[in-house]
């Protein structure tokens, strides 16, 4: 039994913010924002539009159209499951976005559930989707959706969170099917994950949860923005483990897929500061055309891999080995291997 990706879709809000505008707002020199932080522009959502579930629906419609035979879209009511793996910042709190997306699409009868691994979500969700399709005879076709507008949580006056100033908005969707080679975009191979829980509370929204419920005081004191309680300590500890952990999950996923680094044709990597992205690419021997730096999109949480793949798919060839490589606060590193089919 083989699991195939048969459709990919993305949605990006029309409104954009440039690196120069981020520099002006934050007081950081434009050269630092554009070159060091790697942000030329990013898409952002207006306050009353482009909510996460709405962006997911738009991306899902594009993925269903991509997965359909000939020029027709795949009917949503043929989906057996809809799974959301995007940001926890959704239309509502304590709320199943997957159910709302399934209802809006008309995916009647589809089980709608959620998976959450922060910015490592795409490889993790793909691994879980493959496992579901492999293990459950009642699931033949599954939709993965993700959205993020965590840019709303960024405080540009807090220098300790400057590594988040690249946060942008958007959504991605993947249709995954059991044994569908005739319409396949890619074959899903194997994955690997690694979590270091010592980072679990290094990046938090201090208020709004059970430890500090929302109140007038939490709003007035800025408790509902992303914060880093000890920025220098997190940076020091992360610098020692991040590259080795990226290596570990990538090499494990490749080996489990009967590949190694020499086989890599493209890597879809989470957006990060430019120097570390270049270090990672050099470490894996990736040429300029074998990766895409997302400086025109920013960091869109677990949507980064889908955005990169959709942007370069016309340049990929049959049989190309593709690595989806991600990391998310918490801290989790994850990788999934795809073999391109078109």
Q: Any key phrases for this structure?
A:
single chain; alpha/beta; Peroxisomal Thiolase, Chain A, domain 1; 9-stranded mixed sheet; globular
Q: What does this entry show, briefly?
A:
This protein is of the alpha/beta class and 342 residues long. The protein is 31% helix and 21% strand. The protein is built from nine helices and eleven strands.
Report mean pLDDT, rounded to a whole number: 97
Apparent shape: globular
What class would the helix/strand composition place it in?
A: alpha/beta
SSE string, helix = H, strand = E? EEHHEHEHEHEEEHHEHHEE
Helix content bin: 25-40%
CATH architectural name of the largest domain:
3-Layer(aba) Sandwich
Q: How many β strands by DSSP?
A: 11
Poorly predicted regions are none
Strand content: 15-25%
Total discrete domains: 2
Largest sheet: 9 strands, mixed
Looking at CATH, the homologous superfamily of the largest domain is Thiolase/Chalcone synthase
The radius of gyration is 19 Å
Tell me, what is the CATH class of the largest domain? Answer: Alpha Beta
Topology record:
Layout: E1 3-11, E2 16-18, H1 19-26, H2 30-36, E3 41-43, H3 52-67, E4 81-84, H4 97-105, E5 111-114, H5 121-135, E6 141-148, E7 170-178, E8 186-195, H6 216-220, H7 231-256, E9 264-269, H8 274-283, H9 304-312, E10 321-328, E11 332-340
Parallel strand pairs: 4-5, 4-6, 9-10
Antiparallel strand pairs: 1-7, 1-8, 2-3, 6-7, 8-11, 10-11
């Amino acid at each position: 039994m083989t699991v195939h990706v048969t459709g990919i879709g993305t949605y990006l809000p029309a409104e954009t913010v440039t690196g120069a505008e981020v520099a002006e707002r934050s007081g950081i020199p434009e050269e630092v924002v554009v070159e060091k932080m790697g942000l030329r522009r990013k898409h952002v959502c207006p306050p009353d539009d482009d909510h996460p579930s709405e962006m997911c629906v738009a991306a899902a419609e594009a993925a269903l159209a991509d997965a359909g035979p000939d020029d027709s879209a795949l009917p949503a009511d043929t989906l057996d499951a809809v799974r959301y793996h995007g940001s926890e910042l959704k239309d509502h709190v304590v709320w199943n976005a997957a159910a709302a997306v399934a209802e809006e699409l008309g995916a009647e009868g589809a089980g709608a559930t959620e998976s959450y691994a922060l910015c490592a979500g795409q490889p993790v969700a793909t691994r879980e989707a493959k496992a579901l399709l492999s293990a459950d005879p009642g699931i033949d076709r599954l939709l993965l959706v993700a959205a993020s507008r965590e840019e709303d949580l960024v405080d540009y006056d807090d220098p300790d969170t400057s590594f988040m100033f690249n946060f942008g908005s958007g959504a991605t969707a993947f249709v995954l099917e059991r044994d569908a080679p005739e319409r396949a975009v890619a074959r899903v191979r194997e994955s690997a994950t690694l979590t270091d829980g010592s980072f679990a509370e290094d990046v938090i929204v201090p208020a709004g949860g059970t430890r500090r419920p929302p109140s007038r005081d939490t709003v007035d004191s800025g408790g509902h923005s992303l914060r880093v309680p000890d920025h220098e300590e997190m940076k020091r500890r992360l610098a020692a483990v991040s590259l080795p952990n990226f290596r570990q999950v990538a090499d494990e996923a490749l080996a489990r897929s009967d590949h190694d680094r020499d086989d890599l044709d493209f890597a879809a990597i989470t957006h990060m500061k430019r120097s570390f992205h270049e270090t990672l690419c050099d470490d894996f021997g990736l040429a300029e055309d074998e990766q895409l730096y997302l400086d025109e999109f920013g960091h869109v949480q677990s949507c980064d891999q889908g955005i990169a793949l959709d942007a370069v798919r016309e340049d990929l060839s049959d049989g190309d080995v593709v690595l989806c490589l991600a990391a998310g606060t918490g801290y989790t590193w994850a990788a999934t291997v795809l073999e391109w089919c078109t």
